[in-house]
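Re: that backbone. Tokens:
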């Protein structure tokens, strides 16, 4: 998968994780949502590892990252429908 598609998938999964955390704050007994959260967290780790192995760190502050995370394209520069 190309760099931009990996980045878009990473952002979508990260958003889903945040959203599920908010949902579980008000519905802590929803076991189906907890299982879905676990699945997304596994996908998140896999996609993050794949991206970083191919293209470098996704976030600043990782040792050896330098300014690589600042390089184009930014998420809003990606053409819609490219993935």
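Recovered sequence:
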């Amino acid at each position: 998968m190309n760099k931009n598609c990996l980045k878009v998938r990473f952002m979508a999964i990260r958003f889903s994780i945040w959203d599920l955390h908010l949902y579980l704050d008000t519905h802590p007994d929803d076991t189906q949502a907890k299982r879905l959260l676990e699945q997304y967290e596994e996908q998140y780790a896999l996609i993050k590892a794949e991206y970083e192995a191919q293209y470098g760190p996704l976030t600043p502050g990782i040792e050896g990252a330098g300014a690589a995370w600042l390089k184009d394209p930014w998420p809003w520069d990606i053409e819609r429908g490219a993935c």
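Residues 31-55 form the longest helix (25 residues). The CA atoms of residues 33 and 45 lie 18 Å apart.
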